[in-house]
Amino acid sequence: MSHPLEQLRDDAQREIAGASDEKALEAVRVRYLGRNGTISAWGEQMKTLGQEEKPIVGKLLNQVRNALTSALDQASEKFRAQKESETLAHIDISLPGTPAERGSLHPLTQMLERGIQIFRRMGFALADGPDIETEWHCFDALNTPADHPARNEQDTFYLPDGRLLRTHTSTVQIRTMQSAAPPIRVIAPGAAYRRDEVDATHSAQFHQIEGLYVDQSVSVADLKGTLEFFMRELFGADTAVRFRPHYFPFTEPSFEIDVKSKALKGGERWIEVAGSGMVHPAVFEEVNKARGDDAYDPEKWTGFAFGLGMDRLAMILFDIPDIRLFAQNDLRFLKQFA
Question: Full-prediction pTM beyond 0.85?
């Protein structure tokens, strides 16, 4: 004579086989294997059985539970395969597929990577530093006078604790000299921030690659050779490069750099692209004070520094008329650089 559990198993398997869809199958599962289902009820009855009957019924209960679970899984897989088959039957494989959208790097990212690659080929290492800086790193260490306009709150973003958003990545040059003795040759790509009125050529956030090379007997000739090579790699071999005397508090002598190239729109005119100069001895002396040694003795070491506005270079190279396009996330604009 069969046990009631065996009869329950047979009944459940018939109901599973006869289920017409996934909803009916789920109802069978709940009825037998749910929290309040028949199998759970039998489990509760186990405590009322005698010691001899418990192991027999327990083993049979597990067998029934496993058999029903396996049957439910097979039936569910059958419905899933049937559903997929019906879906595929309505697909016309002769029609063209849906094209996948291809992403691309932002033009500013492309510009930064292009600039970094050129300088890496000349032996410059990458250096990084925080966007939120101290006034010492941003101004004092760079020989910037206390009454310089850049220190004014109308030009610089100050935080309540006295720190500020760096106005240039020259701060990374200072941090590099604090942490490493010469010779050094580094570039510092990254964002900078100034309180500029936003218009077609100005933005409150922009991007730079600033560079620093310190060694014995570094001269203006080294500065010119480095930046002429960079400009010709970026704009084309026929690019003319011009250095004009200028003033920066952290370099002496200082130069503005102009380029002229037939590869550019309006290439027959000079375009200002960068600032540069020989590191001012006062900068070395201030770094020595912070380090507590004489590692950057201006009598022994010389160096040059430069700053490139990557937004401006991208606008010139890609013929972009408005700097605000970089931040508007307009796919019509961005797809041109895919």
Answer: no
Residue with tokens 């004489």: 294
Provide the 3-class DSSP secondary structure of residue 335.
helix
Rounded Cα–Cα distance for residues 124 and 110 (Å): 19
Q: 336: closest CA among 144, 106, 113?
A: 106
Distance in angstroms (rounded) separating the CA atoms of residues 262 and 31: 81
Q: Indicate whether 98 belongs to any domain.
A: no
d(CA 2, CA 9): 11
Write out the residue range of the structural domain in which residue 183 sits: 107-337
Strand partners, 256: 244, 275
| Cα–Cα dist 169/306, whole Å | 10
Q: Is 246 helix (H, G, I), strand (E, B) or coil?
A: strand
CATH number at residue 303: 3.30.930.10
Q: Say whether 105 sits in a helix, a strand or coil.
A: coil
- The total number of structural domains in the chain stands at 2
User: What sign has the CA pseudo-torsion 128, 133, 134, 140?
Assistant: positive
Lowest-pLDDT range of 136-145, 267-276, 286-295? 267-276
99-112 pLDDT, tens digit per residue, is 887 788 999 999 99
Which long-range contacts link 50-59 to residues 24+ away (Cβ below 8 Å)? Answer: 57/3, 57/5
